[in-house]
Write a structure and sequence with these properties.
heterodimer, A: mainly beta, 5-stranded antiparallel sheet, about 30% strand, B: alpha/beta, 11 strands, binds zinc ion
Chain lengths: ~160, ~400
Amino acid sequence: MAKEKPKEKPREIRTEVFVPYEVAVGPTWSTFFDYLKEERIMGTRCSKCKRIFVPPRTFCPRCFEEMEEWVQVADEGTIETWSYATLKFYAQIPEPPFITVQVRLDGCDTGFLHRIAGFDLKDFEKVNRRVKLGGRVKAVWRKKKEGNINDIDYFKPIK
Amino acid sequence: MGRAVAIIGTGQTKHGRRNDVSYPELVREAVVAALNDAGISLRDIEGVVSGTMPSMMEGVSDTHLYFAEALGSVGKPVLKAETCGSTGQSIAHCGFYWVASGAADIILVVGSEKMFEGDGQATMTTVADPWFTKPFSAGAPMVFTMQSMEWIYRFGISEEKARDAAALISVSNHDNALENPYAHIHMKVTLDEVKNAMIITYPVRLLDVCPSSDGACAIIYASEEKARKICKKPAWIKGLGFRGEEFFYGESNKSIWPSATEAAKEAYRQAGIRDPLKELDVAEVYNPFTYQEMIFYECFGFCPRGEAPDYVLKGTFLKDGQLPCDPSGGTLCTNPIGATGLIRLAEAALQVTGKAGERQIEGARLALSHAMGGIDQFNGITIVGSEL
Ligand SMILES: [Zn+2]
C-alpha cells in the first residue's frame, strides 16, 4: 500500500476538559482558617525538631512526627523572596501585575507565601524601589472573613 | 546498585511544534529511532517505562493507555512514572532498577510531551495546592524567579553580575542549539538582546526562559552481558541519585536547594567522583531558566556557593571551558517536559560514546545528566561513562 497523505495538511481539533473537584482541607488547615477569621496567624510546632510551621502541618515533613501544639506567630515579618508577575496565564487567580512574596513571619521557622499590594503596582521601577529583599511587611486583614487565605488581604511594606 | 547496566540505544524526535503527527505517532518516532540505534527489534524489549507531565497537560487522563501501542508495549509489562519536570530522570531510574535488579535484561524507557496541545502554564499553576499556593501562582516563571531572587539575596550576589552571567548562559545555550539538529530553537541571540528582552517575572526575561516544545525521547537499557553482546560502545550507568523535599516552597532554603545537592552527592558517591569540576567531562543540566542553571552549578559542586556567576563569566561552562554544560543547547532551547530529563541522559550517553555529532565534546568519557521537577521538590541525576 502506498503511503497516502491527507488532502490538506494534518488537522487539529479543539477540545476542552472540565473536571470539578471537591478537595478535603483536613482538620489542621481548617483550624488554621478558623484562626484567620480571628485575625490570628497560627502555626504548628514539631515536638521533635521544635520548628514552627505556617502554613501549619499535621505532621512534620522531616521528622514525620504528629504536630499537636498550636503557636501564634506575628502578622508581620521579613521578605525572603518575591516575584513581580506581568502575565496572565489560564487558570491563574490573581490579575497581573501582582507581587507574590515569601515572608518569614516573626516567630516562625518557615517561609509563608502571600502577596504584596496596597500601592500602585503598574510601574515596575517604583515597585523595585519599594519592595526589598530583607524588607519588612505587615498583614492587612479583610473586613469580611470567609475562613480562607484571602482573610489576609495582602501584606504591605513597612519601615 | 545491583547488576551493571548500560544504555545501548537512544532516539529523539525532531522537537518543536509537531502538529504534523498525532501524539502516539510522535512517541513511536522516538521508539523506532532508539531501536534502530541499538540495532535490535521490538521483540528484544522485555518491558517499557513511560512518563509525561501530569494529565492536565495532555488533555488525556491516562497517557500510558493512549500510548500503549506506540510504546511497543503490546504483550509486555508497562510502568508509568510522573514527577513533573523530573519525569525524564524518574523513568530513567525506573528502567535502570528493572535491569539492575535482574528482573529483565533489556528495557525501553520513553518520555514525551506535546506542549502545544495543552496549556503548559495552566498546568503549572494547577499543580499547586488550591489553598495556599495557587492563589498566588503565575505558572512556572513565578516559582523559579522567587528562587533566583532568594539565591541572589542570600549570597549577596550583585544583581548586575547575575544578570550578565545569565545572559551569557542564554547566548551560549542558543549557540550550542544551532549545532543540535533535534533542538527546537535555532536562533542566534546577543547579550544585549537577552538583557533587554521583555520582563516575564523580574529578573527573568523572555530569553532567560525555555520554549514549550513537542517531542519524545527513548533510551534502551541492557544488562552487562547483553550490552557487551549487542553494542560495540555502550554508555555505562555509573551512579544515580534522586531526592524529594517538602511540599511548601518556603519550608526549605531554595538557594542551597537540598534535593539538588543531595541527589548529586548520592550520584557522585556511587560513581566514585570526588571533584566533579575536574572529573566530569560534560554535563547536561536541566536548565529551563538561566538563573536556575547557576544554582544547579553550585548544588552540584561545580563551584563554591554564591560564585556561579564568576565561574560562568570566566567561561568555565562554555563548550571549550573546563566543564562544558549543555552542549546540546539544553532545556533552554528544547523543552517537551516529560521527555526533557530523558533527553539530558540521552545526550550524556551520546557524549560518552562519541556519537554527539557537531555537539560532541572531544574525548568525553564521564557525563552528568539531570532533571528537576515539581514546585522545586524533585531533583534526579544519572551519571554515565564510556567505561564500566
Ligand atoms: Zn520535626
